[in-house]
Amino acid sequence: MPALIKKLQLKILNAVSHALGQFSDLEQALDRVLKILTLSLATKKGAVTLKTGEMTLQALRGLEAGEIKDGPFPANPAIIGRLRQPFVILKGEAEPILLDELQEGFPEKDRIAGLGIPIIHHNSPIGLLSVDRLFPEEIPFEEDFYFLSLLGALISQFVGLGREAQARQQDLRWENLSLKARLAEKFDQLALIGQSPALLKLQQLARKVAPSRAPILLLGEPGLGKGLIARLIHELSPRAPHPFIQVDCASGPEEGLAGEIFGYEKGAFPGAPRGKPGRLEEALGGTVFLKEIDRLSPALQARLLILFQDRAVERLGASGARKVEVRIIAATTVDLAERVKEGLFRDDLYYRLNIFPIRVPPLRERREDLAPLLNYFLDKVSAEYGRRFYFTQQSLEVLRGYAWPGNVREMENLVEHLAIAVEGAEIGLKDLPAHLFPAMAKAAADGAEPFSRLKELEKREILAALARHRWIQSQAAMELGLTLRQIGYRVKRYGLEHLIKKRRVR
């Protein structure tokens, strides 16, 4: 019989070792260990409980709720550390009894409800392993305790290896931050293409703040790609393995936006048959990018403040808050300090967000980056449309001299519009919209003739774009690379208001 038991022990240890090595998730691995014991041995009940840092992990088999919460079977995490030696669980007793406290050897077998050992790592108890029985009744309990000690040592070794691997991974992450910054093009970072001093300073600030836990406020005009910069900061941070979630604070009514950001409980409002976590909960451990944060209502600003003060969020309709751990990156195109003075934005929330503000420079301050960006967009549309495009030297000079009030977004829209409009591969002066020619615009103001033809060309372009977009000015403006204000000016300039109204009605 002893030989058979030894053979069985070896077989089980091999299976447990394989299970521990197979699962990267510790909780899954512990559950697999208990499953092996209940399938292969006399075990009917079992519990493994571990404390790793602030987290408690647990796997349970065959236990009733009372045994877990109130009974002597040591599945309760609070007991970890109190039991530093092997122990016996007796029926009818409120507490486990340490092995060396048994005065007359092992009690009668029908009095024993279970056996257990502490899991020790570096001389400190980090958990408990307990079962009702391992081997049949004819086998002495000494064999059970011996085998439990081997299992505990395996689990302890697995936890130690996991901690070491985690530490190495963290060290590698910090060492590779600069390397990841150099490889950022794989994230399609349009706003970070170029080598201008203003852009290099922005990249330096992003690398500096990424490893920290501080909230970040991105400031700058529309169309600069602030969302892409937020994504890059996330990828350079230790939060990279966790979600990056973007929320547009200007989208939808207040109640819908509150539900999206903070979540809601069942019955919080009509049409909420069940509870739903918000974006802040979904991004646990990661980053939430709040676009146009200045558009948040006072009520939502107050809810967001709870996150900074208590590291918690309060769902709509909930009676309490839920703990979350996320990083906030916010963006705005307005002066938030002025909004605070006007009473439109909470000062306490502003000071929380403004710990590390980063100003994103507009394209007019990055002249050195215009040509690389234009070439990037040309390559992109060439791949999309299956034919090569290029700017003539003259048209490239005009584009370099333009102020780009709509920034990167305006440039991208313009290049795509040109790729659709031109017949061949070459994009020359005749193909460019008239608003790109400041010198000719001045000549037009002086009554010069050459600009009249360009005005007619611009008028035809605007009419064609409006017709393609059902006479909706905002959509036509986006296609033409114009702002809403710019297209509105041209509509008035060419007397198109009546025609647009008439066509929209039709």
What would you say this structure looks like, in words?
The chain has helices at 2-22, 26-40, 65-69, 141-175, 177-182, 197-209, 226-236, 254-262, 279-282, 298-310, 336-341, 347-353, 370-385, 393-401, 407-421, 438-445, 450-468, 473-480, 484-493, 497-505; strands spanning 46-52, 55-61, 87-90, 97-98, 112-121, 124-131, 216-219, 244-248, 263-264, 276-277, 287-291, 312-313, 322-323, 327-332, 357-359, 390-391, 426-427. By secondary structure, it is α/β, with parallel strands linked by helices. A hairpin with a 6-residue loop joins strand 3 and strand 4 (97-98). Helix 13 (370-385) packs across helix 15. It is elongated. The termini are far apart. Mean pLDDT is 81; it is low at 177-188 and 439-451.
Chart the SSEs and their pairings:
Layout: H1 2-22, H2 26-40, E1 46-52, E2 55-61, H3 65-69, E3 87-90, E4 97-98, E5 112-121, E6 124-131, H4 141-175, H5 177-182, H6 197-209, E7 216-219, H7 226-236, E8 244-248, H8 254-262, E9 263-264, E10 276-277, H9 279-282, E11 287-291, H10 298-310, E12 312-313, E13 322-323, E14 327-332, H11 336-341, H12 347-353, E15 357-359, H13 370-385, E16 390-391, H14 393-401, H15 407-421, E17 426-427, H16 438-445, H17 450-468, H18 473-480, H19 484-493, H20 497-505
Parallel strand pairs: 7-14, 7-15, 8-11, 11-14, 16-17
Antiparallel strand pairs: 1-2, 1-6, 3-4, 3-5, 5-6, 9-10, 12-13
